[in-house]
Amino acid sequence: MNKEIVKKTACVAHIALTDEELDRYSTDLDEMFRYFEILNDAPEIKNHGFNPVEIADVLRDDVPLMEIPSEDCIADMKTYDGYIKGPRLL
Length: 90
Description:
Layout: H1 3-12, H2 19-40, H3 70-73, E1 79-80, E2 83-84
Antiparallel strand pairs: 1-2
């Protein structure tokens, strides 16, 4: 990596670097970027994700269903015109 880019980056980050540190960091960053370039040569696998086990949708579709008639549910409750009366909220 170019020393000028490292110097500008250090300035933006408010880091004071000596000339020796600029040389070392530019060499280190250049080496890291070369390692990342190796990943560009890795083969692509489009059929697989990060999880080796296939994850399928295990949930069923929701189907509205009334198993108990609503009249039976509210038979023993205090109701007002078919509505359930709850406690008063302040």
